[in-house]
Write a structure and sequence with these properties.
Number of domains: 2
Number of helices: 6
Largest sheet: none
Strand content: under 5%
Shape: globular
Helix content: over 70%
Distance between the termini: 42 Å
Length: about 120
Amino acid sequence: MKYSNNYFSFFIKIFQFEPNTTRTTILCDLFYYASNFARTNKFNHEQISAFLSILKRVHDTCVRMLSYRHIFHFLKSISGTPFGNMEETYQYFKALILKHSLSVSVWIYETIFNNFL
């Protein structure tokens, strides 16, 4: 591991990862390098939080959608995500970006999102 175990422990705690698994190690690396990217690009604390939150939610959505698809779709998919849900994941990503980009009240966001998008 190229970074301190403090980061590893921090990500396990805040994202409630299962300790000592390959999946956890990979995800901790992902979030470590994503947070480094954010700091390098001078994101403030709020922006870093939103960035990591979007990353986590998009990843979780991509993986979760696998359980809703038949194994045939998994084997059939050649491009996109390994789970064959590229379009759904991308639409969710766009919605999250929009949500985190607007500096308006939740009511206005929900009205626009629910009625027009």
